[in-house]
Design brief:
heterodimer; A: about 100 residues; Helix Hairpins; B: about 625 residues; mainly alpha; 3 domains; two-stranded antiparallel ribbon; 25 helices; about 70% helix; elongated
Chain lengths: ~100, ~625
């Protein structure tokens, strides 16, 4: 059973997600990067589930993560949309009203 | 003849309590102890208090502090009940002081006039003198129990049992009994601390009735009855002869009655009468007549309340709010028939007229004194009875007979009181006043039949005498016709003397104006044995004068010198502390901490960029470092 390859793929995707979250300025791209991180986690979960034959807990967990992620994207996009409407920008650096 | 005391099986008092507070592992408790004595007192207190409340609604109508008055009256009753049901001496002390406070408030109810305020203060301070004894005595009861059982307690049952156990040294018991006796002397108006009681007449009349009948002054007698074993053993009451308690009581009987002869104020006559009657009760306790003394407390409450409320009725409707018998009363019989008759019933009951309340209770005290080895006090009591009969007849004569001396009705035509009632001159009081008078008169007639050995009734003893933790050897005398006859004859002599003096004028009049000896005697009485002079001028004046000056000198030269030295030393020490320890040590440390904090803050504020992604970067770096550390550590 191949495990390392899947874990390496998950690690790569996770790092790509982190890189995106830190460097992108556009809020939509940041959200997409977050999704990337979640996908990486899902790959890990499914990989371990398959590795431990007969244990479906990881797959069930992955399904839950997908569901929650969908809801999270829905809420996140709605927030981005409202921010865009208010300040005519989706640049994260412009969303700094709480900065002292 | 000594009757063997027949006792029914012991009935335990009803006890309920809870821990008040705990101190060093010792529980101080608060609770109730309901036995016959407590029930009797609760009946007296609540009955008299109710009647006084009803009476006051009329008497105090339109008073400037009507609500304050009733609030204090209620607190008064409540405090007395707290005292009565107390199951430990500490709680009793609390009730005792509250009763004193309420009497202070009520005596000084009309404090705008200075004499009233002074009277309130006098009552408070004089009883406080006795309270020193109570405080000492209460503390000593604790050690009485400790000697007997090894574990100290304020519990009244435990104190009584300890006193009777024979395990406590006689000296300790005697000192405890004497300390508590001082409390009784202060509270129950016994010689020589009785001087506050007549002054307490400054309060509204219903208050006087309450103070004299049910609440304040009987608290002392109640204390004596409640802790009777302590007195019984401590003063060796069973031994006969003479003891401090009987001596104080006997003295009070005579001096109180003598002073009642020279009073012009009707309430003061009654006040001295109360002092004298309280003397009977204390004397009764002192000669071992527990049942008779508490029985006298019971009956006295009704007829004395009756008389006080009667005098209030006279002042309210007959004499234009004056209590002076010689100036504004006289001849009121035909104007106030109901007040007159109730007053007469009260007087007959007080003086011990046959078959009325006072006859049974007073005779029982005298009979017990005669049966035990206290013959002397029997004669003291008989002498007191003559005087009581005489001064009460004098009081009735001056108030209700002869010519009305309150001025002509038309003179008072513009009197606010007359206008308010729509007519003028003396008249009968309204029903809210006469109602309580008649109820109390009924009690004055009937209360004596609770314990009338002449008819074989001894209900009072059966119901109210404690059966546990109580001296076993008390005497309950048989009824003897000779004793009763003596008492009746003595009372009749008293009546006859006063009658002869006032009505047909057969006895020499104005003796004090012609005979030097009689004048000296009267002056002595009018000045109240100079006790007030002694207290005000000698004791208080002495403390104010030389003692205060000496204390001032000591204060200025000795204490101030010491204080100044201490002050200078403290100043030098303070300077050193300021310059070296405070400025350099403490301030240095604190400033260092502050500067350090500021610098750290300056350094770290650079991290607070406000850029979210920078924070995220920091977060990931930290998580990465943490993971690295875990991995390396593994």
């Amino acid at each position: 059973m191949l495990l390392n390859q899947f874990l390496l793929l998950g690690a790569f995707l996770f790092c790509a997600g982190v890189y995106g979250v830190i460097t992108r300025r556009n809020a939509v791209l940041v959200l997409m990067s977050v999704e990337l991180m979640l996908a990486a986690v899902n790959i890990n979960l499914v990989a371990f589930s398959a590795y431990r034959a007969g244990d479906v807990v990881g797959q069930v967990f992955a399904l839950f993560v997908l569901t929650i992620a969908a809801a999270e994207v829905g809420v996140g996009l709605a927030i981005v949309l409202l921010i865009y409407r208010n300040i005519r920008s989706s640049d994260l650096d412009d969303v700094d009203v709480l900065k002292g | 003849m000594r009757l063997p005391t027949r006792r029914s099986p012991a009935v335990q008092p009803v006890l309920h309590g809870a821990t008040w507070w705990t101190n060093g592992g010792f529980d101080l408790r608060v609770g109730v102890q309901i036995d016959g004595l407590a029930v009797m007192m609760m009946f007296v207190v609540t009955t008299i208090s109710l009647l006084v409340h009803v009476y006051s609604t009329e008497y105090m109508r339109d008073d400037r502090r009507y609500t304050h008055y009733f609030a204090a009256l209620n607190l008064f009753t409540a405090s007395m009940l707290l005292l009565v049901v107390a199951d430990n001496t500490l709680q009793l002390l609390v009730g005792w002081e509250l009763v004193g406070l309420c009497s202070f408030l009520l005596i000084g109810h009309w404090w705008e006039e200075k004499p009233n305020g002074d009277a309130a203060l006098k009552a408070f301070f004089t009883t406080r003198t006795g309270d020193i004894g109570l405080l000492t005595g209460v503390i000593m009861t604790f050690f009485v129990v400790e000697r007997a059982t090894g574990q100290g307690s304020f519990d009244i049952m435990a104190v009584n049992e300890a006193a009777l156990s024979g395990k406590v040294g006689h000296t300790l018991l005697m000192m405890t009994a004497l300390a508590l006796l001082l409390a009784i002397i202060g509270k129950s108006g016994q010689f020589p601390l009785h001087t506050w009681l007549p002054d307490a007449m400054a309060g509204p009349t219903p208050v006087s009735a309450l103070i004299h009948a049910a609440t304040m002054v009987v608290a002392g007698v109640y204390l004596g009855a409640r802790l009777y074993p302590v007195f019984y053993e401590g003063l060796n009451i069973g031994g006969g002869g003479i003891n401090a308690m009987a001596a104080i009581g006997g003295t009070t009987v005579i001096i109180g009655a003598a002073l009642a002869f020279v009073q012009d104020d009707i309430k003061k006559v009654l006040a001295y009468s109360t002092i004298s009657q309280l003397g009977y009760m204390v004397m009764g306790l002192g000669v071992g007549a527990w049942t008779a003394a508490t029985f006298h407390l019971f009956t006295h409450a009704f007829f004395k309340a009756n008389l006080f409320l009667g005098s209030g009725s006279v002042a309210h409707s007959g004499s234009h709010h004056s209590f002076d018998m010689k100036k504004s009363m006289g001849g009121l019989k035909k104007y106030m028939p109901q007040t007159y008759w109730t007053f007469v019933i009260g007087t007959l009951a007080l003086t011990g007229f046959p078959m009325l309340a006072g006859f049974f209770s007073k005779d029982e005290i005298l009979a017990t004194a005669g049966e035990s080895d206290y013959q002397f006090f029997k004669y003291v009591g008989l002498a007191g009875a003559v005087m009581t009969a005489a001064y009460m007849v004098r009081c009735i004569y001056l108030t209700f007979f002869g010519e009305y001396r309150g001025g002509q009705p038309d003179v008072h035509g513009d009197d606010a009181h007359a206008v308010e009632h729509g007519h003028d001159g003396p008249h009968e009081s309204p029903r809210l006043i006469t109602g309580p008078l008649w109820v109390l008169s009924g009690f004055s007639i009937l209360a004596g039949y609770l314990n009338a050995p002449a008819f074989g009734i001894e209900k009072f003893k059966e119901w109210f005498e404690p059966r546990v933790a109580f001296p076993e050897t008390l005497i309950h005398p048989e009824f003897k016709m000779a004793d009763a006859a003596t008492a009746v004859v003595v009372v009749l002599i008293g009546y006859a003397l006063a009658y002869a003096y006032y009505w047909p004028k057969v006895l020499p009049q104005n003796l004090s104006e012609r005979n030097g000896l009689a004048r000296a005697g009267k002056t002595f009485l009018v000045n109240k044995y100079y006790l007030d002079h002694l207290y005000t001028n000698v004791v208080v004046g002495g403390i104010k004068g030389p003692v205060a000056r000496a204390a001032y000198w000591v204060n200025q030269n000795v204490i101030d010198g010491v204080l100044n030295g201490v002050g200078r030393g403290a100043r030098v020490a303070g300077k050193f502390t300021y310059a070296v320890i405070d400025q350099k040590g403490v301030d240095g440390a604190i400033n260092g901490i502050a500067v350090g904090t500021g610098e750290i803050g300056d350094a770290t504020r650079k991290l607070q960029t406000g850029r979210l992604q920078f924070y995220a970067l920091m977060l990931f770096i930290c998580v990465g470092l943490f993971g690295l550390a875990l991995w390396l550590g593994h």
